[in-house]
UniProtKB/TrEMBL annotation:
Name of the top EC class for this enzyme: transferase
Source taxonomy: Bacteria, Pseudomonadati, Pseudomonadota, Alphaproteobacteria, Sphingomonadales
Gene label: bioA
Protein name: Adenosylmethionine-8-amino-7-oxononanoate aminotransferase
Any matching Pfam family: Aminotran_3
Any Gene Ontology CC annotation: cytoplasm
Protein location: Cytoplasm
Keywords (A to Z) from UniProt: Aminotransferase, Biotin biosynthesis, Cytoplasm, Pyridoxal phosphate, S-adenosyl-L-methionine, Transferase
Length: 419
């Protein structure tokens, strides 16, 4: 009997293998048939310290027996209070308020609604959102609207709202990006906000840009009183080498989106942090000016407990040191892969390494990525290339020997592609 499960980003008509994962530990997934898979992409960019991290697992178990779920509209609980205070301390200075939700997409939706509500409550008709070329911010309607138009959202175009796009700041073209952003921010009809993925665009192909460029874009927005939204759903919690990517540019956004690694990747939780000005524009004795957003599982106590355990790990253990060790191993791996004639444009930031395959069809729907993924799966590596971009984003516990193993599998997979 076939499974009734409908999997995300999966074309079931192709009949591709769907392995069943029975357990996990560290950097490894254990299949029901006895095979092991090295998790080369942190199970879609969420696992940070490793699968089934003991401190996080213990926190989840303890909380599940004490308080599992409660309404968060007008009520609170200790785990959420502790986590919110910790996030305010850890985040760039000036983000004083925390709104919880349950995924990266909803963290972005919350940010967009905060931005629009801010201007509405101040009596200013500012509705346009500025976005960065090649960006991706999630799969709900608002999040799709501020992402690149592509096959990902073509069927849903009638639902999406219009945005203005700023060119990606590729090396040597940074000034063009700043000029375009300046022109949009200075337009007679001022935009409401500019949303960016700081330092690296994930689904866009692991496209990296400099911290100096991030800071310059923030400065343009500040000069024109345009809200700056940093989507750190992927880049947060150490992926770029620092706790948050914004740290490397020395900036504080007006709104910061967090998810994925917030709980170490164990359970779903998101947070949208906002400045006092944005909070105050919603605070009033008029009920009509409240922030109209929630979900049933807002600030779920079990998820907040997992996040508090994750925060404790960051405070008490040398996580940056682990990321540095991982980065060195990824550098060595990229050097090996760069010797392959079919690979080029190797790049690394923090615990993310990427390299591009020389192909004529580099689109998301080409057969390159599925073939590479299938070869890696057969060899014991969980890989999910983005078109012709092959990347590794493993948990921070992954050893240099495991990275070398992953690199060897990738090298063989590229050879097999030519066969």
């Amino acid at each position: 009997m076939s499974s009734p499960v409908w999997h995300p980003f999966t074309q079931h008509g192709l009949g591709e293998a769907i392995p069943q994962i029975a357990s996990a530990s560290g950097a490894w997934l254990h299949c029901a048939d006895g095979r092991r898979l090295l998790d080369g992409i942190s199970s879609w960019w969420v696992i940070t310290h490793g699968h089934c991290e003991p401190r996080i697992a213990a926190a989840i178990a303890a909380q599940a027996g004490q308080l599992d779920q409660m309404i968060f509209a007008g009520y609170t609980h200790p785990q959420a209070e502790q986590l919110a205070r910790s996030l305010v301390v850890l985040a760039p200075v000036g983000l004083d308020h925390v709104f919880f939700s349950d995924s990266g997409s909803t963290a972005v939706e919350v940010a967009l609604k905060m931005a629009l509500g801010h201007w509405h409550n101040r009596g200013q008709a500012r509705h346009q959102i500025l976005v960065l070329e090649h960006s991706y911010h999630g799969d709900t309607i608002g999040a799709m609207s501020v992402g690149a138009r592509s096959v990902f959202n073509r069927a849903y175009e009638p639902l999406l709202f219009d945005v203005a796009t700023v060119p990606f700041p590729a090396a040597g073209k940074e000034q063009g990006t700043l000029d375009a952003l300046e022109a949009l921010c200075a337009a007679p009809e001022k935009p409401a906000a500019f949303i960016v993925e700081p330092l690296v665009l994930g689904a866009g192909g692991m496209l990296a840009y400099t911290a100096e460029m991030l800071r310059a874009m923030r400065e343009v927005c500040a000069q024109h009183d345009v809200l700056f939204i940093a989507d750190e759903v992927m880049t947060g919690w150490g992926r770029t080498g620092t706790l948050f990517a914004c740290e490397q540019a020395g900036i504080t956004p007006d709104i910061l989106c967090l998810a994925k690694g917030l709980t170490g990747g164990a359970v779903p939780l998101a947070a949208t942090l906002a400045s006092a000005a944005i909070f105050e524009s919603h605070r009033s004795d008029e009920r009509a000016r409240m922030f109209f957003h929630s979900s049933s599982f807002t600030a779920n106590p079990i998820c907040c407990a997992a996040a508090n355990a994750n925060v404790a790990i960051w405070r008490e253990e040398d996580v940056p040191g682990r990321i540095a060790t991982l980065g060195a191993a990824l550098d060595a791996g990229l050097a090996d892969l760069a010797a392959h004639p079919r690979l080029h444009n190797g790049r690394r930031i923090g615990g993310i390494a990427a390299i591009d395959l020389r192909v004529s069809d580099a689109g998301y729907l080409s057969d390159v990525a599925p073939r590479l993924r299938a070869h890696a799966l057969a060899a014991g590596l969980l890989l999910r290339p983005l078109g012709n971009t092959i990347y590794l984003m493993p948990p921070y516990c992954t050893t240099p020997a495991e990275i070398a193993e992953a690199v060897a599998i990738i090298d063989n997979a590229v050879d097999a592609l030519a066969g």
